[in-house]
Every structure is written in C-alpha cells, then in structure tokens.
C-alpha cells in the first residue's frame, strides 16, 4: 500500500508542478514557446558557412537563438524547397486585392495584437498629418542644405556645414565617388520640389542650377553615381518643365531654352571616356570630368554600376536624337549579360572590364547587382525594347531558381518563409548568411512585374528588421539574427517598396509601416540642421552626413505614400521612377528612335527586314509605377496584408519576439 501511495504522490506532485507552469508561464511541460506556431524554426544553431557562429558577431547576437533553418539548404533539397516557378502575371490594371486576396488572408481566428495594430482604416486626418510630416522632413533638410551647405554637394547636418569632394584624400571613394563639386543635393532634389507642388522653389532651384552649376570640374566621380543622381535628375526636371500638361502646377521656367537638357548632354559627354578603350565594352567605373579616365584607374567595376546606365542614357539619346549614349549603355548591358554563368544564368557582383573575368562571384539582389535587374525591366517599360524584357525575365527566373530559399508560397504551406540569399554565381552555393539593406528595393520591383505575393513576404521581412532597430542596418545576418554592418545612411529602399506595395494593394497596413518609418526617422536621425546618417543602429549614434538620396528618394516616397491625390497617382498619367527616385513620364515620345539607321536590327526591323512591333506604352503588360493600380476602389480594403501568424513568424525570425 505504501508504494502505491508513494507513486500516487509523485504523480500528483508532477501534475501540480505542470499546473504551476501553466499558470505562471502559460506553458505546458511538453510544450515549448515555439510550438505555439505551426511551423518549426529549427532552434539548433546551424553552422555559418563563413566560419563558426559566434555570439560576439553582433552586439545583440543571441547565442542559441533562432537560425535560418532551411535557407542554408540549396533549393530543391527539401520536400517544400523546390525552385519556384515565376508566377503568372496579372493582366495590367488588375493588380488590386481582388486578384490576390488569397495572399492577404482573412480573419481566421479573430483579431489579435497584430491585427489590432495594423488593421482598420488609416483616418484621412492622420494621413494628411503624415503627408505634412514627410513634407516637413524634406523642407527641413532642403532649407538647411540651402542655408548652410549650398553650393557644396552635401549638408553635414550636425555641424551645419557644407561638404564637397575630399581633395586631401583621393582614395576616399565613399565621398569622392559621389561628390563632384556640382551642388549635388540641390540637383538631386529638383523633381521632389515639383512632386510636392512647390513651384516657386522649383523655379528658383532650376534657375540656380542653370546659373551656377558647371561640370567642368577636376573631380573624379563614379560614372554610375553621376548618372543616376545628376544626369537623371536634370532629365527629369527638364521633362517636368517642358510637359505641356503641367500636372504639378506651374513648373515652367520663363525663357527656358532646354538648358537642363544641354547640361545633361555636357555631363554625359564627360562620362563617355569611361566607355572607350575597354576591351569588353563594359565601362570604367570612374572618370575625371575634365580629363577623362585617370591613368591609374581601377579596371574592376560592379555589375550594377556598369549595367544600370541605360535608362538615363537612353532618355538622353532619344531626346537629343543622338544614339551614342544609348548605344554605349546598351553595349555594356549586353556585355555583362553575355558573361553570365551558362549553368545558373546568374551574374557576379564585380567584373574586370578588360578581361571579362568575374572578380566578385557573389550573386545576390543587393549591393553590386540591385539596379542591374531594376534597369532591365525599367528600360523595357520606358523604351519598349523586347530584348530588355527577355533579359529581365531570364534573370528573374534564375533568381527564383538559385537565390530564393524557403517555401513556395508566401504564407501558406510548410517550410520557412521565403528569403533571397547570396550565392556563388557558378555553383549556386550559399556564400554567406547576410542580406543587405539595398536588397529591400526588390519587393518594389516585384510589384512592377506583378509578383505581389512574394513582394509582400520579402517586404515584411525587412519591415520586421526595421521594427527591431528603428532603421535598417546595412547588413543583417539572418542566421545570427544580428546586424553584421551597423550603419544606416537614410536609405530609401524600404520606403520605396512600401510605397509601391501600397499603390498595388491600397492596404492601410503599408500606411502604418510608412508612419512607423517616418516616426523613427524623426526620433533617431533628426539633428540640429537636418537628418543624419545613423552610425550604429543599436546605440543610435549618428554621423555628420546627409546623403542626397534622402531628399530625392526617401522623402519623396514617404510623401507620395500619404499624398493620395498627387498628380503622380492620377489616372491617365504614367510615371516611372528611376533608381534614384526621379520621375519620368512614360510616353510615346521615348518609344521612337530618331536614329533608326544605327539600330537596324533592334530599332524597328528584324533581320529579315520585316517590321518589328514595338509596344506602345498602353500595351505594356507590366504594372508600371503606381498608376495602373489606381483603379482599385477605396472600399476594397483588407484587414491585414499578411495573416497575423505569418507576421509573427517574421518577427520571430529577426529576433523581435
Ligand atoms: C541610391 O543612390 C539609389 O537608389 C541606388 O540605386 C542605390 N542606392 C542609393 C540609395 O540607397
């Protein structure tokens, strides 16, 4: 009898203990925290291919924390990890919620904390308040630049001073690649003034640029940076001034005689030496604006730098009727394209322009490659050249085959949510376990081609990182769940994707995201005379630099996100954003080749002499910019863009919960 009582006592004791655990922690004895979620996250620490995972790798690295489980596996090795087929794209104009509501999920289990936080209307007053906050952010940065820095290139917002090229240290490429002693911030900000409807300041700024900016400078700049920030902005402003419809208000300039176009031409001519004496046709990365390619220059360039010039160079060529610029830019794209791996179809991130050898074999969506993909699609949107779309489609399929890890569907099925990793271009093998903040532009690009489901997932991943730090660290290690590189230079990529996803879905979730971003920018980066780079996303220390893209992109996308009635969103207008966020209207004029004889194969005739159909802008099967999606009626809103379980998973993966 005694042993029975002993056993009974032990059983009761154990049950009692379990009961206490339930009451105190809400956990059963055999039920871990993670098991409340239907999907497993592989809690064991996985080996980092770059070396042993170390808790010291990141200040908030969590020993024993979550790892990215199946993302380490090559695609096709698990039951749920087969390479994903690119989804069928929706017809143009039907990209709204009605056609992909299955992605968004409904209220299966009643409202929870995620639903409470993100669902529901975003009241019009709040939206107007956020729009004004975004405008105020731009104005504060711009006014301070004009007061303390102009005519220099950038504003040092902490010490209220200007900054130009670093003449004392020519090897300081971080500065000298971008700052050409040509009032960069003013030039880069021109079309944001127009988009915000500030005609008096736009007119003043344009006159200032015409009267004071010169490219006859002894500055060695990166061809890519000068192209996207300066050439692109001049062309965008020129088109705004000469637009007969003047949608942004009166942006005309009295006695305007195409000065900005001539300036753009002058700059582009100074960049042309980069395309000479290169055995592959891939341009040198840098030129001196006065003297051409420096004798001791580097022969290695990144793919994005050399292969993302076509939009600006193509516009210039078509406006001037001079094929030279488009021809050299297109030759560079094709040369790079021909160097892709025969096996994977992927490109690397750094190439030698004389030998064509890949110096950097890393293939990913971020630094070194980002805008290369973007400009294949955007060149097609703008110019309608079929070969650009074909290259883009092939590149996108290779990305799906080799870079994308995780389950096939956004928030359904088993396996981990999708993520795009960095791999070796030849083998497709994982090269490291970080993603960079530049990659956050990719969901926006996916919106343009109609792959909205995947865009939602990838965007959510980046937003979860933002929520954790109030910014995006330059590199985030998904295995260690910690930043690898800690600074945040006010980049626009997450805001850009947020804006484009909002235009595609009209889901108020993205307004909440935008508000969150705005508020953290105000809280952590606002300083005495502007907005400062975050030096360290954890301790929130700042650096005395405000890059020009903060005004041209970050503020613009934030403003447009909340400015529902902006002319950019009006039906009948079709704007595309360059990679620096400059608006370009998509119209017939840019579909014409004033130099047909130079492009006999590509420009209107096939090899057999038959005429080739060049699609008109309205025939495009891509969602270009936001305007195709505006037909989504306002009342068609979804409570949540992501099933809340999915959002929770993402938060968990970046270590937020
Ligand atoms: C911008 O200059 C452009 O968006 C470019 O394509 C890449 N990155 C910066 C901003 O982060």
Automatic annotation (TrEMBL):
Q: Name one GO biological process term.
A: protein targeting to ER
The subcellular location is: Endoplasmic reticulum membrane
Indicate the principal place this protein occupies in or around the cell: endoplasmic reticulum
Alphabetical GO CC annotations of the entry are:
aggresome; endoplasmic reticulum membrane; endoplasmic reticulum quality control compartment
Record-linked Pfam families: Glyco_hydro_47 (PF01532)
Cofactor(s) annotated in UniProt: Ca(2+)
| Molecular function in Gene Ontology | calcium ion binding; mannosyl-oligosaccharide 1,2-alpha-mannosidase activity; misfolded protein binding
- Look up the EC number in the record and give it: 3.2.1.-
Q: Which InterPro entries match?
A: 6hp_glycosidase-like_sf, EDEM1/2/3, Glyco_hydro_47, Seven-hairpin_glycosidases
Q: What is its membrane topology?
A: Single-pass type II membrane protein
Function, as annotated: Extracts misfolded glycoproteins, but not glycoproteins undergoing productive folding, from the calnexin cycle. It is directly involved in endoplasmic reticulum-associated degradation (ERAD) and targets misfolded glycoproteins for degradation in an N-glycan-independent manner, probably by forming a complex with SEL1L. It has low mannosidase activity, catalyzing mannose trimming from Man8GlcNAc2 to Man7GlcNAc2.
Q: Which family does it belong to?
A: Belongs to the glycosyl hydrolase 47 family.
What is the protein's name according to its record?
alpha-1,2-Mannosidase
Q: Taxonomically, what lineage is the organism?
A: Eukaryota, Metazoa, Chordata, Craniata, Vertebrata
Q: Which gene encodes it?
A: EDEM1
